[in-house]
Design brief:
single chain; 102 residues; alpha+beta; 4-stranded antiparallel β-sheet; 2 helices; membrane; transmembrane helix; transmembrane
Length: 102
């Protein structure tokens, strides 16, 4: 949807030996800008004669596979909607406080 929506996304990294690292996660967004993401699940695909064989891996193995780089949804994708809500509540509280003092 244009204003709000939800779904599943994935990100992947290809390694030189044919393996793929995949991160699946769920998200909810408002106007494609403010997003909250959760439920990251990592899988590694290894090549076989019949295609890729996928196996889930624990989150603790991911930094070793990516040389310590962050892999998955970015901080903005994970927390921007929560930050916008907090900012909205703070603004409402400040306006209410200013109205009460006048």
């Amino acid at each position: 949807m244009l204003i709000w929506g939800w779904g599943r996304r994935n990100k992947q990294i290809a390694f030189g030996d044919g393996r793929l690292l995949l991160c699946n996660y769920r998200y909810f967004h408002l106007m494609f800008v403010f997003t909250v993401a959760w439920g990251q699940q990592y899988s590694i695909g290894t090549p076989t004669p019949y295609g890729l064989a996928w196996q889930p891996i624990a989150d603790s193995y991911v930094p070793a596979l990516t040389n310590g780089n962050q892999f998955g949804p970015s901080g903005w994708e994970r927390f921007s909607l929560l930050g916008a809500c907090v900012l909205g509540f703070v603004l409402i509280a400040l306006v209410g406080l200013a109205a009460a003092l006048t």
